[in-house]
Amino acid sequence: MIMFTTTQVGSWPRSKKMLKALRDYRVGKLARQDFDHIADDEVRRTVRIQEEVGLDVVVDGEHRRDNFYSFITDKVEGTQLMSLAEMLNEVEDKSGFEEMLDTLDVPASAIRNPTCVGKLERREPLALNDFLFVKTLTGKPVKITLPGPYLLSRSMWVTGYTRKVYKDQFKMGDDIVRILRQELKELADAGCEFVQFDEPVLTEIVMSQECGRRTFM
Amino acid sequence: MGVELDYAAELINRIIKDIKGPRTGIHICRGNWSTREDVLLTGDYTPLLPALTKMKVNQFVLEYATPRAGEIKVVGEALSGNIPDTDIPRELGLGVVNPRTTEAETPEEIVRKTRLALDFFPPEQIFLNTDCGFGCFANRCVNVEEVATEKIKSIVQAAKMLRKEYS
User: Fold this and answer.
1) Domain at A16-207: CATH code
2) Pick from A215, A96, A86, A208: nearest CA to A158
3) Are B152 and A207 in contact (CB < 8 Å)?
4) Of B15, B152, B153, the CB nearest to A177
5) Where are the domains of chain A?
6) For the segment B15-53, what is each residue's pLDDT rounded down to a tens digit?
7) Chain B closest-CA separation from residue A4 CA (Å)
8) Based on the structure, what is the number of domains in chain B?
9) Model's pTM, two decimal places?
């Protein structure tokens, strides 16, 4: 068994070209195929850097993802990408929310949330294809990252939109579990070595009070 | 709060139950949306332990390069045993570089940090990784490729030094 296995958490800095592609794809100025072509090149370079450096378990850099959890709106039916600015309509204490974003240095127009607006169904795999692509580039073990179920159950629920579809967060949570479990199974069948679930929001529920504030998630 | 933590553990356990093959991990951090350390959350993992100890994942991938994460001892003492109801030892994915700073940590610094984890986990159960991703939100990256490359280089160098010493 190997000692001190080296790896990273997931995302790699995006190039200017990738940032532009993400923007253009989002607003419909770039076709999926052209977007994938650009992203494939970025992933190739990211994997090559990790191989050259000698990292043991490599990641794809998450170049295709708008952010580490909002990207699921591309893959899951019943979701809609909303900027925090758009979500302001649903927030009761608007000025407080805006002030918080400002204080915390959160770019309100830049961070987008995957809001649940309909029954959640997986339209296509969340990350299986990312895994299969990296495997064409390297013989090294690969780590795939997925948004954690708790993060999704908190962030996707925006009462004004979601209550029409799900009775409560737990009902929505059941569908999130079903979708992530299906993904994990498929990754397992494909031979994926490492699947990491990201749950940054857990710290918020226990620490934001001590810090005397809540965060944007 | 306790209800929320229990729910978080229940959700992850339902997803991974009986699926064999991949190593499973959970990554927790205190925010990665800003390069300003003063606006990100602060506190050690103590209040999360009731949830973490119930989670049946193989590995906890945790921030430890930033001093905001507190002492390694906290998870070292609570999480260095086996996954509940199994004889499989848990692993620690030790965060050893801060993805938001412009200077790469030296391999020596990383070795020193890793020694603190070695008080609780054997070398085979310690992974060395970044604290978080390098580019969380689409149009605002927290770092650039050149710095990110230097940082993962330092991690690999540190692992080499440690393997030499502990093999």
Assistant:
1) 3.20.20.210
2) A86
3) no
4) B15
5) 16-207
6) 999 999 999 999 998 877 677 777 677 788 898 999 999
7) 5
8) 1
9) 0.93
